[in-house]
Amino acid sequence: MKVLLLVSLVLLxxxxxxxxxxxxxGTLPEYHGEEKAAAAVSEQNLLTSDRFWPYQVALxxxxxxxxxxxxxxxxxxxVLIRVESNGDARIDFGRDGLLTVPVAKTDLxxxxxxxxxxxxxxxxxxxxxxxxxxxxxxxxDTLRPLPFPEVSAARGVLGVFADPNSKELATLAxxxxxxxxxxxxxxxxxxxxxxxxxxxxxxxxxLKWTVPFxxxxxxxxxxxxxxxxxxxxxxxxxxxxxxxxxxxxxGKTGVLPELRAAIDxxxxxxxxxxxxxxxxxxx
Length: 283
Prior knowledge:
283 residues, alpha+beta, SH3 type barrels, Glutaredoxin, 2 domains, 4-stranded mixed beta sheet, 29% helix, globular
């Protein structure tokens, strides 16, 4: 299942028209990723230049593949999941596996600069494009996709990876309720275990925590791509809309103060403008 999904993402990544068709309704909101006046992207500032990360990258040198497979050759194309904090690139090559590759062995910096200059089209922020068209609206009266334009407004994404029927999720639903769409950060559930979509929807409605969730048959693939193998559930993963990791926690609840601080630091609220009271008319 994961192979089929990610191979389709690799193929779609090179075809903007096909990517637009992925969104419910067949269209994506207008998006402009270029900014020619911005500083050039380099390996040194790549991590914080996520708005220019391309959706797709290619190898410029051969790299080892998963055990038992031949090395991936130069020219191999994959979907960029993110740049890690150590500067390496996390790339999904579909059937060849998820690999962490030195940026110097890819054309990532070159493609990022092409995005910056407007020479390489970027139809939407990477993370939103990857998951946005594949979300269910648990707040709707019927089982239906969440319209992509609603997702495209997100400034960041808080991914919650948990079993819908677990006690931990019930606790998290209470803890995280005040953060739902706070400062433009969307909370999204990646349901763990096999649960029909209708069941997940009803569970969230019963918890009065009607956040969007990834379709059950896709959740495992996204979990494997976005989190590290063996990480203890529940997992909280705060990311920019292009996929840069800002905060992560696993195996525990009660992290609201740390999470709130991370959101405040990454997505500061606009300052409230003081309104000066009008002067009284002289008598």
